[in-house]
Design brief:
This protein has 22 helices and 13 strands. It is of the alpha/beta class and 471 residues long. The chain folds into 4 domains: 31 residues, no CATH class; 106 residues, D-Maltodextrin-Binding Protein, domain 2; 98 residues, Periplasmic binding protein-like II (D-Maltodextrin-Binding Protein, domain 2, 3-Layer(aba) Sandwich); 160 residues, Orthogonal Bundle (Lysozyme), CATH 1.10.530. The strands form 4 sheets. Strands 1, 4, 5, 6, 7 and 13 form a 6-stranded mixed beta sheet that branches. Helix 15 crosses helix 22, helix 17 crosses helix 18 and helix 18 crosses helix 22. The N terminus is likely disordered.
């Protein structure tokens, strides 16, 4: 009997032992084994896709006040597909950009990345979004006594390339076949566009770039030659962290479909095959080169001080209103750079014949009045800027209606996102515009909401590009 009891205990003990140790799996794997991140779900919950992008003539730039770029437009389309906002980190340094991705500060690295063995082992690389080939960038025959037109002539030459780039790896492969080898100078603080500029200035003799980037720069730097091809066609990808398979799969599925669309065909032609687009780099309002956003920049810098604004914020508002066109007139009768309504314009001494400066002066006075009215009832001024922008667009009365609704239904009447913005957006609903606290009735509230969102987003882009130009 005792033996039978001991035997039963032994069987039970063995069962639990096997349960806990079978195939090396911990008894509670959820607590011990690392789990794969659900990054896609996290992005949707936070409502933002965080991407790293570089400054260059095809990736991301501002032209005549409009944010543009092949990578930028693709990212915008992907963010819209996910129904989230796009949050950009703009970085010239490839190593630092990968660090942003590795640390979790970014979800996606959106550049022309070649699928090298090292990157394949460390990251989830997307299916190709585009392709090109590498070329040697040098000054033309008229300016360059060391001009070369064949790969063997690279022997013994000094070539500057971006460190840890596909250009560096291609050049290393070529160098191994030459005697003497190529003297490769790897630079970790500049992009290929910066090196192309140095070639044009005569500061260095040679660099390597992809054909798209080289041709675009050739329209600006007329003295460079980009005719010598040094590689086969390469396919370019985006990079995602290795443990984020859900996002990687979503990107791939989206790219497969997006590349079949007219939208993709349009932007691919726009940035890589259109002479008109390539000539953008010669324009004085190609901000990455000139630092200028519009011909009114000096006015913006002077007038913005009157309301303690950054001049680039004022520029972003004026672009939203009129695309920097003082002759612009809306169907509602608003006119000029800052699209003043006739009654408001008359109050500040502005009419249809007023100059751009006079229209801006009137708009500044109106902004100052709007801010003064709001400050009378705001207890917390943290979100004063979006509230002022919304009121400039839709009127102080409608904004105050939204604030009264927010207060009545338990939201914060001094906060914009998810508070006042929510009630303003929904002021087209009968139950809201007929609410007893509402004094100004129906309002298409989605319009001022988008107005604020787009101005603040454009302001970020203007800061990004003008700050880069200062460097």
């Amino acid at each position: 009997m005792v033996y039978k009891y001991i035997k039963i205990l032994f069987v039970i003990s063995l069962f639990y032992c096997l349960l806990g140790c079978n195939s090396g799996v911990p008894a509670n794997p959820k607590e011990v084994l690392p789990q794969q991140d659900s990054l896609l779900q996290e992005i949707k919950e936070r409502g933002k896709l965080r991407a790293v992008i570089g400054y260059n003539v095809t990736g991301y730039f501002v032209y005549n006040g409009l944010t543009m770029g092949f990578q930028y437009e693709m990212l915008q389309a992907f963010a819209e597909h996910l129904n989230v906002q796009l949050e950009l980190t703009v970085n010239d340094n490839l190593a630092v950009s990968f660090d942003e991705l590795d640390s979790g500060k970014a979800d996606l690295l959106a550049m022309n990345l070649v699928a090298t063995p090292q990157r394949i082992s460390k990251y989830n690389l997307s299916i190709p979004h585009s392709s090109s080939h590498q070329v040697l960038v040098q000054r033309n025959r008229q300016e360059n006594k060391n001009y070369i037109d064949s790969i063997p002539q690279l022997a013994g030459k000094t070539v500057h390339v971006v460190k840890e780039s596909s250009y560096e790896k291609q050049l290393q492969a070529i160098s191994e076949t030459l005697t003497p080898p190529v003297h490769i100078v790897s630079v970790d603080s500049l992009l290929s566009g910066d090196l192309i500029k140095m070639v044009a200035k005569g500061e260095i003799d040679f660099t390597i770039a992809d054909n798209h980037n080289a041709i675009a720069n050739n329209h600006y730097h007329k003295n460079i030659d980009v005719a010598m091809r040094i590689s086969d066609d390469e396919e370019f990808t985006w990079a995602i962290r290795k443990n984020s398979d859900d996002l990687a799969k979503e990107v791939d599925n989206w790219l497969k479909q997006f590349k079949k669309t007219r939208h993709y065909s349009y932007i691919n032609h726009r940035y890589f095959n259109s002479t008109k687009s390539m000539n953008i780099v010669n324009n004085k309002y190609f901000t990455l080169r000139s630092g200028k956003i519009s011909r009114y920049d000096n006015l913006f810098k002077t007038k913005a001080k009157l309301i303690n604004w950054d001049w680039r914020l004022l520029a972003a508002l004026v672009y939203q209103e009129s695309n920097f066109n003082n002759s612009a007139k809306s169907r509602a009768g608003a006119f000029g750079l800052m699209q003043l309504m006739p009654k408001t314009a008359k109050r500040y001494g502005v009419n249809h014949l007023s100059s751009g400066e006079e229209n801006i002066t009137g708009g500044i006075k109106f902004l100052r009045q709007v801010r003064k009215e709001l400050l009378l009832t705001l207890e917390d001024t943290t979100d004063l800027l979006p509230l002022v922008l919304a009121a400039y667009n839709v009127g102080v009365g409608h904004l105050q209606d939204a604030r009264r609704l927010a207060r009545k239904y338990g939201a914060n009447p001094d906060k914009w996102d998810d508070n006042v913005a929510y009630y303003l957006r929904n002021k087209s609903r009968i139950d809201f515009y007929n609410d007893p606290v509402v004094k100004y009735g129906y309002c298409r509230g989605e319009e001022p909401y988008l107005y604020v969102t787009e101005i603040l987003e454009r302001y970020k882009h203007y800061k990004n590009i003008t700050d880069k130009h200062k460097e």
